[in-house]
Amino acid sequence: MLRYAKSGLASASGAIGILAALAIPVAAQGWEPTKPVEFIVPAGTGGGADQMARFVQGLVAKHNLMKQPMVVINKPGGAGAEGFLEIKGASKDPHKIVITLSNLFTTPLGTGVPFNWKELTPVGMLALDQFVLWVNSETDIKSAKDYIEAIKAGDDRKFKMGGTGSKQEDQIITVALERLTAPKKMTYVPFKGGGDVAVQLVGKHIDSTVNNPIEAVAQWRAGSLRPLCLFDAKRSTYTEKVTKDMAWSDIPTCKEAGIDVEYQMLRGVFGAPGIGKEQVAFYVDLFKKVAATEDWKDYMEKGAYNQTMMSGDQFVTWLEGAEKTHRDLMAEAGFLAKK
Q: Which domains, ranges and CATH numbers included, belong to the chain?
């Protein structure tokens, strides 16, 4: 069984974090940017992290939340190592921040790149992202049970699973699924970002993906993709219809289908090493203002996000637990870099 989901700490803090997001201080910050802020995305264009960063960029401009502009810069090289090393090297520069996903943990653990999240300055968790098992809508596979049976009935490694990067969350989930299809395995095909992955599935170049909701919702709405199950302990709480006859809440959990796999991903923000408390406070406040907008709430629902927010010591404690969980999962999958 693979289980990586929000901790009890995250669960308990969800409502508190959201309420805190609404309590926007009216006092001016002691520090604010004096030049454009670079918002680094350690992943390719079109994926969940890229979409969120660009949405935040648009909200900041639309609601005049910052005097200086925010500029999104993609640095996906080396499974995101390019982006992490960029911000690591920007010591004490408060005009660079980075949005993070699970490669915050998987990239250094899987590649040995000289980087650890503790070298950066944690700002806060914006949300937790879900994972969904997707297939092309024209396939005969109608359920997660059908999916497992199809792989077991086919030739070894004939079934292609597309995902973002190697030895990252998508491949970790793939390995977990292969426990249920043993001795048959899939062929994992890595791409630069979730946007590319969705396009490949629509084109039938791969057979399935575990894309985040926001990465595949457009193709689902268009009728090109079919969701089979959600990798969470409970169904989504979002009940508004996305397609003519389905809402996120209509997607069964994978566990309901006998697939005991849970996984949720961090959407967080970090600053460069050594930035000051006033500079961290500015960004914490900025993202609280972002989260208080109706646009953000709508974005959260459309992407079926778990709306958990946190910062400070609470966020650091969550990060420590998540790092250990990823280390354990990657060790079990044989993905840890050799020392």
A: 2-129+265-333 (3.40.190.150), 132-263 (3.40.190.10)
